[in-house]
Structures are given as C-alpha cells and as structure tokens.
Amino acid sequence: MARPSHLSAAILTLMRAASRHAWTLEQIHADLAAQGRQANFSSVFRAVERLLADKALRKVQLHAASARYELYGPHHDHLHCTACDAMTPVPCLATGLGLGALEQSTGYRVTDHEIVLEGVCPQCRQQGQS
User: Fold this and answer.
1) How far apart are CA 81 and CA 105, in angstroms?
2) What residue spans of 1-130 are helical by DSSP H?
3) Whether 6 contacts 43, CB under 8 Å
4) Is the dihedral of CA 41, 44, 49, 50 positive or negative?
5) Which of 30, 45, 68, 122 is the most exposed, fewest CB within 10 Å of its CB?
6) Mind listing the domains of the chain with CATH numbers?
7) What is the pTM of this model?
8) What would the pLDDT profile of 1-27 be if each residue is shown by its tens digit?
9) In terms of C-beta density within 10 A (0-12 exposed, 13-18 middle, 19 or more buried), how is residue 86 classed?
10) CA triplet 59, 60, 62: central angle to 5 degrees?
11) Distance CA 106, CA 104 (A)
12) Which CA distances in Å does 130 have to 56, 100, 104, 117, 125?
C-alpha cells in the first residue's frame, strides 16, 4: 500500500470528526476548504479514489443523486432524504431476507449488497416538505 498523502489523511480526519455520515465529493472539497485545507477538486477526487482502493472509504451510489463516500466499516444500509439530501445509516436490512435460499436457487454467492431507501426525514416532514 502506498504511503498516504497529506490530503488523504485530512479527508480521513474530516470524516472521523463525524459532522455527517456520508459526503459527496463537493462536500468533502468544501469542508476541507472550510478547515483551511486548500486543494483543487481533482486532487480531492484522486485522494478519494486512493482511499477507496485502500478500503479506507466506501462508495454509496444513490439512484437520483451524487454518490456519497463514507468511512469503511461494518456493513449497514441507508435512508436518504430526498428533500434535504441527508443520509442516515441503519442496520443491515438484508439480514432476514433469506439470502441462503437466494444463493441456492440462483447459484450466486452474495458477497455484498447496497440498500438505500429514499424518503423524507423527520425534520423535513415537520417543515412540510412531504
């Protein structure tokens, strides 16, 4: 594994501070700038790609919005607010879905999955955003 760059270390520090659960590339770039860490967007992109390759980060692909990046850790699924764009981690929803039976009937060995449920968070609902 390559030696981590200062930018990669700054990204990990930012994410470990847990100001949010998952970030877009634009949010990572803006949050680094807000902390006084100036880096061009392409450098942030390359640092995130390295962190993905090193399994320090995980990419969560959303259907209608930009991908998010989160710290790599124990598996969980997500709720995504379509009003404010917040993401909330939730326990794995596939645990009781009978993956063994699915594997047996299809011949696949399931090694990973991603479940993102979209809706409106409690704060946005209180504000009348559906």
Assistant:
1) 34
2) 6-16, 25-34, 41-53, 99-106, 122-126
3) no
4) positive
5) 122
6) 1-73 (1.10.10.10), 74-130 (3.30.1490.190)
7) 0.81
8) 454 589 999 999 999 997 789 999 999
9) middle
10) 140
11) 6
12) 36, 38, 41, 16, 5
